[in-house]
Amino acid sequence: MSSYAQGRKELEKRRKKINKEIKKINTLLFETKKEKTNALDDLKDLSQKITVREQLIETIRLETEELNKEIKQNEKKISSNNKELSTLKADYADMVFKSYKSKSQQSKTMFLLSSENFLQAYKRIKYIEQYKSFRKKQAQKIITKTKDIERLNDSLTKKKNQKKSLINTETTQKKRIENEKEEQEELVSKIKNQESKYKRQLNKKIREEKAVAKRIDRIIRAAIAKANKGKKGKAKKGEFLLTKAEKSLKAKFEQNKGSLPWPIDGVVTRKFGVQPHPTFKSITINGTGLHIRGKKGAAAKSVFNGKVLSITKSDKGTKSVMVQHGDYITTYSNLRTVFVKNGQSVTTGTSLGTVFTNKVTGKTDLIFVLNKNTTKLDPAKWIRSN
Question: Which of 372, 349, 247, 257 is nearest to 303 (CA)?
């Protein structure tokens, strides 16, 4: 396979992956029933969809470029093969014509009988045999070369059809993104008209999230202190004192970095870390983990073997489950129900609880946080590429 084809195969895989992501975004962000909409949230969701669609259009463009290179390469091969075939046919025709003129059965016999000695006769027999073999090989070369050209032509037709299909897809995607950008502009205009109202709502939400994050941090520190009680040795403040089995589990967890399963099947609506708000750039938000939008009724599942460290309940009634994996902790927040108990051993894929669905917004959002002791890590670097 040529480097062009290899590059296109990778782009094709990327395109299929992005298409899958767009379908998920449509299902999870836009098809959920909402009693009440919020322009700020709608704009965030729409902006995310536009970003992914732009990635799709760029991938299609790159894939079309690679396909163009393959088409040119094919056309060049066909031209070269046609020239070779013309030469082979001309040589073969000349050979047949000469044979017809000089190689009747009588002339062949005379050619052998006119030999001066036995050795010369033997050589002349060999020459006749070699000439026959050469003619046969030339005929076979013509057949093979013709089949090669047919195969290349079939491949060229297929590639041209693929290119046409990609161009049609790109055109469709561009029309869709135009409509989405018009909708985006309308939402931006609506928000600007009531900017102070939306900023107040946003700042209130940020304060609430900070309070929840601080409470979870306190719970983690208390859970670590409780887990260390009765164990031999001395641990640093805020760090687990690990047994031999826990050290082994920690090592296995680290070996699976980048390949852990997703806690729910969904779409990331907020990333980890400090980042400017997508609409109000002057306001920063701090993602303590990943916000993952899933389907209504989705169950949060443990991403690795471990032990339930703590189960907590928020002021709003939603629950959080913390699972210990050596000195790593995964936290699954915004649960409606919980299926596990404190101290319970769990395995990869164990259902921990059902994610809460907001009746007003229709959103089913899991907040997935990863800690090493009390230090927060980016879960996106640990779970597999979706």
Answer: 349
Continuous segment of H or E residues that includes residue 78: helix 39-102
Q: What number of other Cβ atoms are within 10 A of residue 270's Cβ?
A: 19
Per-residue pLDDT of the chain in tens (386 residues, 90 and over written 9):
556 666 888 888 899 999 889 888 888 888 776 656 678 888 888 899 999 999 999 999 999 988 888 888 888 888 887 887 787 777 767 666 666 555 544 455 555 556 566 666 656 566 666 666 666 777 777 777 778 778 888 888 888 888 899 999 999 999 999 999 998 888 888 888 888 888 888 888 888 888 888 888 999 999 998 888 888 778 788 899 998 999 999 999 999 999 999 999 999 999 998 888 877 878 888 889 999 999 999 999 999 999 999 999 988 889 999 999 999 999 999 999 999 999 999 999 999 999 999 888 889 999 999 999 999 999 999 999 87
Give yes or no for a contact between 261 and 333, defined as CB atoms under 8 angstroms apart.
no
Alpha-carbon distance 47 to 53, whole Å?
A: 10
Domains in the chain, please, with CATH?
3-193 (1.10.287), 195-381 (2.70.70.10)
Q: Cβ neighbours of residue 38 under 8 Å, at least 6 residues apart?
A: 201, 361
Backbone phi, then psi, for 309, in 5-degree steps? -90, -40
Token representation of residue 169: 């897809």
